[in-house]
Specification:
Elements lengths: L7 E5 L4 H12 L3 E6 L2 H13 L4 E5 L5 H15 L4 E4 L14 H29 L2 E6 L11 H21 L4 E8 L7 H9 L3 H5 L11 H12 L10 E4 L8 H10 L1
Parallel strand pairs: 1-2, 1-4, 2-3, 4-5, 5-6, 6-7
Helix pairs in contact: 1-8, 3-4, 4-5
The structure holds nicotinamide-adenine-dinucleotide (NAD).
The site of nicotinamide-adenine-dinucleotide has 28 residues, from helix 1 and helix 4.
Amino acid sequence: MSRYKNTVALITGAGQGIGRAIAQKLAKDGALVTVLDIDEGNGRKTVEMLKQDGHQSHFVRADITNFSEVEEAFAKTAEKLGPIELLINNAAFSIAGNLENISLDAWHREIDVNLNGTYHCIRAIVPAMTKAGGGVIINISSVNGVRYFGNPSYSAAKAGIINLTQSVASEFGGKGIRCNAVLPGAVRTDAITWKTRIEKDPNIFEKLGRWYPVGRVGEPEDIAKAVSFLGSNEAEFISGVALPVDGGLLAGMNVMIEDFILED
Ligand SMILES: NC(=O)c1ccc[n+]([C@@H]2O[C@H](COP(=O)([O-])OP(=O)(O)OC[C@H]3O[C@@H](n4cnc5c(N)ncnc54)[C@H](O)[C@@H]3O)[C@@H](O)[C@H]2O)c1
């Protein structure tokens, strides 16, 4: 509870999945949480859940691809709860695909939501954080940002987010702003890409687990715990990093090595 006592936090895309888990974890750790989402029904549901658990929270609707909407939502939050001290850029969109079949519209949309949307939120918050003497920004990227796991437009955007994280950490570190990226591996959520895959194979997460050295895919709470640490004063000397939270996926080629061993 004491980690974030009354820290004002805003989480984008907190209407479901990882964003909702981050909202619940930060609220449990004492933060005053604003849930931002394009989906008003789901966003309000998260707020309802937080309130039922005894936490103060409020909802703002915005499409992060629209800079004016982001500015307005941030202003509303500051009016209601005070200046935003912790921003979690989590909102994302992807319909998957590959280079051969992706439509031009889908490519643009994925870059727009995932990269430009994240940039809009950073652009909207930096002046206020600078004025306040500092703040913390955490960008949810992905293991797709550093390796090929399919889904090239989403991956390009997630790679861009890692570089953007380094720019923010470098340019604004002197103003008291820390900025880090978190790179989840596969996480069990209702994201549309997972829904589509689950329709084809209900055991997809169990199957994928064998690629993960820890033997399973992630749960939203795994990501929330890492975010809570990175956003806190315990991480006060950590800035500009891209932290995989992936059960060891990026550490090596587990399944390939099992094949070598079988060959011996
Ligand atoms: N689930 C995974 O396996 C996984 C793996 C790696 C990284 N991630 C990343 O973690 C984050 C959360 O993933 P998730 O699986 O919970 O996603 P999700 O699709 O379940 O939730 C995303 C949320 O973002 C909101 N959103 C989408 N477009 C928006 C917009 N334009 N403006 C405002 N809100 C918008 C949606 O309404 C939704 O509530 C994302 O950044 C995602 O890329 C997820």
